[in-house]
Write a structure and sequence with these properties.
The protein is mainly α and 228 residues long. The chain is built from twelve helices and no strands.
């Protein structure tokens, strides 16, 4: 068995199962948490305004733009570039289709769920380069900023590394540098699988919890009479 066969075969199956089951386990665990009863009288009952916090707090208020606007802009840009690289590259879309078809008894489901226009390879390479560069800037800022450096832990650095690795190895495979193409491609796939395995257990899980947490926080703030 070659390294590429291993990456495309059993390694991909294991990573996918850990990814799906790990996310399900985390979400079920959150849903089963016992909420503390709030015995205080609600000052307001406008849950809709609380849910609106999901959108209104996705960008800092103008009073804080000078302090955090630069970091926010970098964060949004590299996230968008990363998701475009993952979801709008034709080989990635085909892979998603194949993974779904491998785990579901109805092969057509994969092609229905993951079927949309894709971008040219050159554009994807540019977006991957942009995302990689901004990730490096974000890492440097974390090291330079004394507060962020103080609150950063192993999870922050490992999540950063596992996010950057697929981008770097993917660009290397596209440019045919770093070794034989099949070997570099196998390393790229394995780096993605390492990210998938770590995803449910680290801070990257915020992708599935961020909006729900902001919504619940907004509802609680409204109940206490705070402005959202």
């Amino acid at each position: 068995m070659t390294l590429l066969s291993f990456a495309r075969g059993i390694a991909l199956e294991v990573a996918t199962m850990v990814f799906v089951l790990g996310i399900a386990w985390r979400l079920v665990g959150i849903l089963l948490l016992r909420a503390r009863r709030d015995h205080s009288a609600a000052r307001r009952h406008d849950a809709w305004k609380g849910l609106m916090m999901t959108a209104t707090r996705s960008w800092p208020k103008k009073e804080f733009i000078g302090a955090s606007g630069f970091v926010e802009a970098i964060s949004y840009t590299w996230h968008l570039a990363l998701f475009a690289t993952i979801l709008l590259y034709a080989p990635h879309v085909v892979l998603l289709q194949n993974v779904v078809e491998a785990f579901l008894p109805f092969p057509v489901v994969g092609r229905i769920l993951f079927y949309w226009p894709t971008l040219p390879a050159g554009m994807i390479f540019f977006l991957a380069s942009l995302s990689s560069g901004l990730l490096l800037i974000a890492f440097a800022h974390r090291l330079i900023n004394p507060v962020k450096r103080l609150i950063s832990n192993f999870d922050d650095y490992l999540s950063w590394l596992l996010t950057l690795a697929p981008l770097i190895t993917g660009m290397a495979a596209y440019m045919h540098v770093g070794g034989p193409y099949q070997t570099v491609l196998a390393v790229h796939i394995l780096s993605v699988e390492a990210l998938m395995i770590w995803f449910p257990f680290g801070k990257l899980m915020h992708l599935f919890t961020m909006f729900a947490v902001r919504g619940v926080t907004g509802v609680l703030f409204v109940r206490k009479g705070a402005a959202t």
